[in-house]
Design a protein that fits this description.
With 220 residues, the protein is α/β, with parallel strands linked by helices. The protein contains 6 helices and 9 strands.
């Protein structure tokens, strides 16, 4: 089954970047679920959030995109629980507020999910323009089949080249460290630094879980 991607969206400019990245991943076969985590129990807030989700879904332009309103005091926990209910393998975020254009910086909720979360995480750079993917950077251990297969599956779809460089690429895929529990994400200092140095979208894979994008997987 193609990977389901939860897209964190609250209508801000950086979450518009998340929509653009979601559109790129949707073109590769990901099934999209647009989600808003609501921290208030007010009915008016719920109505406004649903309207915002509908506008975001329309901006995505995907006929089969679903929307979900999640009531939870924690954005990261709310999205994590939604991902479990939807059997989603990926959560897509924009970068943190005030991130310089063209750079990547995880939001606080993103960072929490990168530290032992149960899904892959994708982060769009600020001001992301959805550029054509021709080169994919891969930073992973030699035995990280999940990251390797994910990179080559996407490379197959985009007719892209896979390189072991983190710079000058159109998409950067980062594997989780070997100490991560199966099915969770966990970064080492080197890969965490590479994310903050990135100028392209970053996709961090969970240990042992390759993402299915309806393409013929490269077998490591």
């Amino acid at each position: 089954m193609p990977a389901t991607a939860i897209v964190s969206y609250d209508g801000t400019a950086n979450d518009a970047d998340a929509l653009t990245l979601a559109r790129v991943l949707g073109e590769a076969g990901a099934r999209l679920v647009l989600a808003y985590v609501l921290h208030s129990a007010q009915a008016a807030d719920s109505d406004a959030a649903r309207a915002l989700l509908e506008r975001g879904a329309a901006a995505l332009g995907a006929a089969d995109v679903r929307t979900r309103l999640v009531a939870h005091p924690s954005t990261s926990d709310g999205l994590g629980q939604l991902a479990a209910r939807e059997a989603a393998a990926l959560i897509v975020f924009g970068s943190a507020y005030r991130t310089p254009v063209g750079r990547v910086a995880p939001q606080t909720s993103t960072q929490r999910l990168l530290d032992g979360g149960a899904t892959a995480i994708a982060i769009a750079p600020a001001g992301y323009d959805g550029r054509e993917i021709r080169t994919i950077g891969l930073l992973a251990e030699l035995d990280d089949v999940a990251a390797i297969d994910t990179a080559h599956a996407l490379a197959s779809h985009y007719a892209a080249t896979v390189t072991d460089s983190g710079s000058g690429v159109d998409l950067l895929i980062v594997g989780s460290r070997p100490q991560a529990r199966a099915g969770t994400t966990l970064l080492c200092a080197r890969t965490e630094g590479a994310i903050f140095d990135a100028t392209a979208p970053v996709l961090v894979t969970a240990r042992g879980v390759a993402l299915d994008f309806r393409t013929e997987l490269y077998l490591a």
